[in-house]
Amino acid sequence: MMIPFSGRPRWRAARRALGFRKNEDGATAVEFAMVSVPFLGLLFAIFETAFVMFVTESLESAVADGGRTILTGTSQASGYTTANDFRDGVLCPSTGKQLIPSFIKCSNLIVDIRVAASFGAADTTKAPLMATGFTGTYNAGCAGQIIVMRILYPMPVYLPLLAATSIATLRVETGGQTNYTSSDGAAGMKHMLMATSVFRNEPFPKPTGSACP
Question: Is residue 213 a part of any domain in this protein?
Answer without folding.
Answer: no
